[in-house]
Amino acid sequence: VQLVESGGGLVQPGGSLRLSCKASGFTFSSYGMSWYRKDLGKERELVATITSGGGSTNYADSVKGRFTISRDNAKNTVYLQMNSLRPDDTAVYYCNIEEYWGQGTQVTVSS
């Protein structure tokens, strides 16, 4: 199993980013996927989940209404669209399935 995140960067408060996670090594369309984040000094936080077919999603209260998780099973990719970003969204964002993790992509929200 390999998960490769991309799309992070530095953005001003109120800005947007779209993260991508390209998956390989398993039948992507059969598994739900998750995004987590971890910032220094804070516990790892489950940000969003999506079912295998994409028909159901769930979000942390801290990102509801601002973030959208989606997937393209034809491309073996899961996305996280992040809008109205705030400084407290700063973290390394990780893609996850079961016990497997990507390397993470850094998101920094700062003016």
Question: What can you see in these coordinates?
Answer:
The structure is a single chain. The protein has no helices and eleven strands. The strands form two sheets. Strands 2, 4, 5, 6, 9, 10 and 11 form a seven-stranded mixed sheet that branches. Strands 1-3-8-7 form a four-stranded antiparallel sheet, with no helix packed on it. The chain has strands at residues 2-6, 9-11, 17-24, 33-38, 45-50, 57-59, 67-72, 77-82, 91-97, 100-101, 105-109.
Q: How many helical stretches?
A: 0
Q: Tally of extended strands?
A: 11
Low-confidence stretches are none
* Helix coverage percent: under 10%
Distance between the termini: 37 Å
What does the main sheet amount to? Answer: 7 strands, mixed
Overall pLDDT level: 97
Question: Which value, in Å, is the CA radius of gyration?
Answer: 13 Å
Which geometry do the CA atoms define? globular
Beta-strand proportion: over 45%
Order of helices and strands: EEEEEEEEEEE
Specify the structural class.
Answer: mainly beta
Q: Could you give a quick summary of the protein structure above?
A:
With 111 residues, this protein is mostly beta strands. The chain is 0% helix and 51% strand.
SSE topology sketch:
Elements: E1 2-6, E2 9-11, E3 17-24, E4 33-38, E5 45-50, E6 57-59, E7 67-72, E8 77-82, E9 91-97, E10 100-101, E11 105-109
Name some characteristics of this structure.
seven-stranded mixed beta sheet, single chain, globular, mainly beta, 111 residues
